[in-house]
Amino acid sequence: MKTLYAAALIGSMGLFALNATAQQAAPKQDDPAMKIYRETPTKYNDLVHTKLDVRFDYKKRYLYGKEWVTIKPHFYPTDSLSLDAKGMDLKTIAIVKNGKNTPLKFTYDGMVVKIKLDRTYRNNENYTVYVDYTAKPNEYKAQGSLAITDAKGLYFINPDGTEKDKPTQIWTQGETEGSSVWFPTIDKPNQKTTDEISMTVPAKYVTLSNGRLASQKVNGDGTRTDTWKMELPHSPYLFMMAVGDFKITKDTWKGKEVSYYLEPKYAPYAKDIFGFTPEVIDFYSKTLGIDYPWNKYSQIVVRDYVSGAMENTSATLHGEYVQATKRELLDDYYGQGRSTIVHELFHQWFGDYVTCESWSNLTVNESFADFSETLWAEHKYGQEAGDAHINGDRQAYLSQPDLRTKDLVRFHYHDKEDMFDAVTYQKGGSILYMLRNYLGREAFYKGLNIYLKTNALKNGEAQQLRLALEEASGRDLNWFFNQWYYGAGNPILNINYKWDDATKTETVILNQTQDGNAFILPMAIDVYAGGKKERKTFWMRNKVDSLVFKSAVKPSLVNVDGDKMLLAKKTDNKTLDEFAFQYFNAPLYLDRFEAITAAAKSQNSNAAARKVIIAALNDKYWELQVKAIKAADLTNDDVRNAAQPILSKLAQTDPNNLVKAAAITALGKLKASGNTNLFKQGLNSQSYAVQGASLTALSLIDAPNALAMAKTYEKDSDGALKDAVLKTYANSGSDEQWPFVYDAFKNGQPQEQFNIIRSYADMIGRLKNQSSVEQGISSIVDFGNKYKKYGVGPQIAMVLNGIKDARNKAGDTASNAMIDKAVAEMNAPAN
Ligand SMILES: [Zn+2]
Which residues, listed in sequence order, are joined to residue 765 by a DSSP beta bridge? Predict the structure, then answer.
C-alpha cells in the first residue's frame, strides 16, 4: 500500500506534516499497548477456499452475503473455529455435508464468531462452513489511522446519487484487517486462500475483483451477476471488489490482460496514465527472475479513497491523485502518480506472492515496494533519477528524529497501523539500497529470486530474506540484519580531515555521535590527488575510527562514502574548494547535490561557492538545476549578474518544464518589468507548471493585470496553473473572486487544501462581505475537524487567529466570537 501519510502529504504539508508526524511518532510513556508482544498469529485453522455470493443494498449501505468457506486444522486436531466478522448480522452458520447444511452453535461478540464444529477434525480433513450474513460497514465503528484514514472495509460512495458531480461507486479496502467487515474470515496476513466471488450489481455497472472474470449472467430484474475466480491462494487483506461506472481500457503483457478502469472522463488518458505498466511488469519480471505471477493485472481509480493506493492481488486500487490529463502529465517526470503505479506493481511479488507473516514484519512488503520506486527510476530515467529518488527517501526518514527509536522489524507497537511509517517505507527502502551495494547487484537479485521461490504463495519475514541473501552471496548477514532490521536508529556521522605536509600524510577522522553502539559501516573512500582518483575500501567498526594514508601531494578531495550509500545523518567538514572540486569531478548525483547544498549557504562570501551555484544552473540532471535555481541568491550582485542571462535562457528553451517554471519563478521574484514579455510568452505554454509560474511572476509585477488574466484560466486550468490562479486570487483578489476560491478550497483534494490554506486565510482577512467571511471561517473549521486527529489543530488555530487579527485591523470585530469559538475547538484535544 502507498499511504498518503508516508507519501503525498509528508513532502508538502510542511508545518502541518511535522506536527502530524510528531503526534503519531511519540507513543505515550506508559502506553499499555506498547507492552504487548505482537507475535505472529497462531494458526489453529487454515483457510483453503473462500466462496462468496454478495448483493448490495445501496439505500441501507449493507452487503447481503452468503459464504462457503473451506478450512482445515493447521496441525492439531480441533472441534472449533474462530472467524473475524466485524459488526455483522450473522443469520445462519452451518457445516456443509453432501450438499446439506447442518446448523452449528456459535457465540458472537460483534468482532469474532466462535463456532463449535460438529466434530473434531484432523489436519488431513477439509471442512466447509456456510455463513448467511449481512455486513453493515457504516454501522461498524472502525478506528482509522493517519496512514489509512478509515477501516470499515467496504465503502459506498454517493450511494443515493444525491451528491452532484460524484459517481456512485462501491469499493473495498482490506489492509490491515478490514476485509472481515465484509466477509467472515481469518483476517490475518499469514492465512492464504483461493477465492470465488459472485457479485450481483445493477446491470449498468462494471465490476472488478481478484483473478479472472469467469462468468457474467444477466438477471431478469435489471441486475447482473459477475463471478470472479482467484485460483492461486492469497491473503484475506488482499481481497477486493469494486462496482461502478468505469470505462475499461485493455492492454496486454505476454498474453495476460493488463487493464485500466477509469471514470469515463479520464478514460481517454488511460494509456497516458497507465500505459507504461506492461513495460514495468516486464522489467520487474526480468529483474526478479520470476514472471508476473497472476493471471491478469488491473488498476482502478476510485473516489474518496482512504489512503494512497492498495496492491490487491491482480487488482490494484488507486486514489484519485494518480489521475491526470495529457497536459498535466507533461509536468510529471517521475511524480507521485507514476511512483505509486510501480510501487503497487512490485507488491504483486513482495506482499502478494510472498506476504509478510505478521504486521511486525511489514518490511518485507513495504520496504521492497518503496525500493522498487528507485529501481524503476534508475531503469527508466537513469542512474541520476534513481539516486535522486533514494535520496528523497533518506531525507524523509532522517527528517523525523522521533523515528530513531523504532526497529524496522517491530514487535511492539501501539496499533498495527503505526507500522505504516517512514521506518518501514523510506528507511527500509534505503537499507535495501545499501544492501544491494554491499552484495553487488547480481547477488542481491539472485537472493530476492531465492526468497520469492522458496516462499512462493506463502509468507516470509526478514529472517527468510536474510537466509536467501546469504545463500545467494555466501556471506553472513547476521550483523547487517541485527543492526538495520532488528535495531533502531542511524549513524550520526561527523567527518574531519587533516593534512600533514611534513609527513605527506592525510588523516580522515570518522566519528559516530549517536547514542548507543557504533554502526558497522562498510564504505568506499575515493581519494583525488595529483589528477588521479584512487578508491580505498574501509569498514568503520568503532564510534571513532580514522583512516591514515600517505599521498605524494595534498589530495584535492577525499570523498568519504564514494558510492553515497550510507543511511546516515552526515556532517562533512570539507572546505568549499573541496566541495567545488567534488561538484566538478566526482561522478554521482549526490556528489553534486552535497556540493550545491554546501555552496548555497556560502554564496555571499565565497567565490568557489558562487561558481558551483552558477554552474549547477546548467547541471546535466534537471532536479539539480531546479535545486540550484531555487538556491541561487539573486540579491547578491555577483550571483544575479551571472545567473540572470542563464535563467532567461532556461526559462525559454530548457526542454524540462519544471526547470523552465523554476527559472520563471526565480526571475519573477526580481519584479523586473523587462521580463514581462517573457512571462506573457510563458502563459502560452502547454505546460501548466510554466503557465502557473508565469502567472505568478506577472502578478508580482502587475497585480490587476494578472488578476484579469487569471480569470481567463478559471475554467480550463489544472495542476500548477490552478494553484497559480488560486494563489493570484487569494493574494490579490477580493469579494469578486471569492466564490471561485471558496469552491476550489472546499472541493479540493487534501493536498491542494494544505497548499493554499495560508493564502486562503489571507484572502478571508480582506473580504468585505460578512457572510463570505463566515463561509470561509467555517470551511477552515471543517477542514480542521477532518484532520485534527492528526495533530494539526493548533496550526489551524493559528491560521484562524491570523484571520481575526486581519479582520480587527480592518475594523471588523463581528466575526471575533465565531473565530474564538473555532480556535477553542481546534485547540481542544482530538477525540
Ligand atoms: Zn505499499
Answer: none
What are the CA-CA distances from residue 609 to residues 317, 565, 612 (Å)?
A: 47, 25, 5
Residue 748: per-residue pLDDT: 83
Query: How many angstroms is it from 703 CA to the middle of ligand 1?
Result: 44
pLDDT of residue 723: 83
Q: Please give the distance, rounded to the nearest whole angstrom, from the Cα atom of residue 328 to the centre of ligand 1.
A: 24
Which of helix, strand or coil describes residue 202? Answer: strand
Measured over the CA atoms of residue 517, residue 522, residue 523 and residue 524, the dihedral's sign is: positive
| Residue closest to 81 by CA, chosen among 129, 133, 132 | 129
CA of 344 to the centre of ligand 1 (A): 6
Strand-pairing partners, residue 185, are 84
Q: How far is the CA of 247 from the centre of ligand 1 (A)?
A: 25
What is the 146 CA–ligand 1 centroid distance (Å)?
15
Query: In 3D, which of 227, 229, 171, 211 has the Cα closest to residue 314?
Result: 211
**Cα dist from 297 to 192, 257, 316, whole Å:** 19, 6, 8
* Residue 154 clears pLDDT 50, i.e. is over it: yes
Q: How far away, in angstroms, is 310 Cα from ligand 1 center?
A: 7
**Cell numbers at 146, concatenated:** 493517519
Distance 343 CA to ligand 1 centre (A): 6
> Sign of torsion, CA 161 166 167 171?
negative
Q: For cell 524496522, what's the residue?
A: 408
pLDDT digits (tens, 9 = 90+) for 293-314: 999 999 999 999 988 899 999 9
Contact between 522 and 533 under an 8 Å Cβ cutoff? The reply is no
C-alpha cell at 759: 493564502
- CA triple 640-646-651, angle to 5 deg: 110
User: What is the structure's pLDDT at 151?
Assistant: 85
Burial string for 277-311 (b: 16+ CB within 10 Å, else e) reads: bbebbebbbebbebebbbebbbbbbbbebbbbbbb
Tell whether the model's pLDDT for residue 635 goes beyond 80. Answer: yes
| Separation CA 203–CA 217 (nearest Å) | 10
Ligand 1 geometric centre to CA of 351 (Å): 8
User: Nearest Cα to 55, choosing from 205, 220, 225?
Assistant: 225
